[in-house]
């Protein structure tokens, strides 16, 4: 009976150690710290109440660029921030300027099978550094999910949706890039940071 008790105790300790390790891992992935302003916006939609939203850190109230899309959709870019980790995060909003409900086209996800498998997104977006003669695609995680706003769908007339896209950062000598999103016009944006 003593051997069985020892084996059960050992299994219990292993289970407790694994559970503690997982809890620490989840807590470590939770973000936190002083850099909360750079976290990705949620993909939920909200009705425009008529009041102007306040500018987030690093974002201007005047858009850097406005890209016109189909069915009255408008993509307004509010910031393009280079960080020390070698990434460029582009923030903005998609607005339905039309008089009726509009669907964000599925082409905005791009045509990569792995990206499309994770649902509607802005995974087809690219930036072009004409000075360096390079095109940069949206980043993906290890499971192929694009590092952009996902879960895009319908927007009612006048409704806005905050969006983001993350790319590898061009060299620091590059201060302007062209943003291209399928079904939207392209636009030049100035990089800060």
Tell me about this structure.
- The chain is α+β, with helices and mostly antiparallel strands and 193 residues long.
- It folds into 2 domains: 1-30; 36-190, Immunoglobulin-like (Sandwich).
- It is 17% helix and 28% strand.
- The protein contains 2 helices and 10 strands; from the N terminus they run αββββαββββββ.
- The protein has helices spanning 2-29, 113-116, and strands spanning 65-68, 73-82, 87-96, 102-103, 126-129, 134-137, 154-155, 160-168, 176-180, 187-190.
- A 4-stranded antiparallel beta sheet has the order 1-2-3-8, with no helix packed on it. The chain has a 4-stranded antiparallel beta sheet with strand order 6-5-9-10, with no helix packed on it. The protein has a two-stranded antiparallel sheet with strand order 4-7.
- The N and C termini lie far apart (67 Å).
- Mean pLDDT is 79; it is low at 29-59.
| Number of β-strand runs | 10
From the alpha carbons, calculate the radius of gyration and give it in angstroms: 21 Å
Described by strand count, sense and barrel closure, the largest sheet is: 4 strands, antiparallel
Structural domain count: 2
Q: For the terminal residues, how far apart are their CA atoms?
A: 67 Å
What's the tally of helices? 2
Secondary-structure class: alpha+beta
Low-confidence blocks of residues:
29-59
Mean of residue pLDDT?
79
Q: Give, in spatial order, the strands making up the sheet with the most strands.
A: 1-2-3-8
Level-2 CATH architecture of the largest domain? Sandwich
Fraction of residues in β-strands: 25-35%
CATH topology of the largest domain: the name is: Immunoglobulin-like
Helical fraction equals 10-25%
């Amino acid at each position: 009976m003593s051997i069985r008790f020892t084996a059960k105790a050992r299994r219990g300790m292993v289970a407790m150690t694994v559970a503690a390790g997982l809890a620490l891992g989840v807590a470590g992935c939770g973000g936190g710290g002083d850099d909360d302003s750079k976290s990705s916006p949620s993909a939920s939609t909200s009705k425009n109440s008529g009041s102007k939203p306040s500018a987030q850190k690093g974002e201007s109230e005047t858009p850097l660029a406005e890209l016109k899309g189909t069915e009255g959709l408008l993509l307004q870019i509010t910031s393009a921030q280079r960080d020390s980790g070698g990434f460029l995060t582009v923030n903005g909003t998609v607005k339905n300027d039309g008089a009726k409900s509009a669907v964000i086209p599925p082409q905005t996800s791009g045509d990569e099978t792995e990206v499309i498998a994770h649902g509607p997104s802005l995974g087809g977006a690219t930036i072009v550094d004409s000075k360096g003669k390079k095109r940069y695609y949206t980043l993906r995680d290890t499971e192929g999910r694009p590092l952009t706003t996902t879960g895009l769908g319908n927007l009612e007339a006048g409704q806005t949706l905050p969006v983001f896209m993350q790319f590898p950062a061009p060299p620091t000598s590059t201060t302007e890039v062209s943003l291209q999103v399928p079904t939207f016009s392209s636009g030049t944006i100035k990089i800060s940071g």
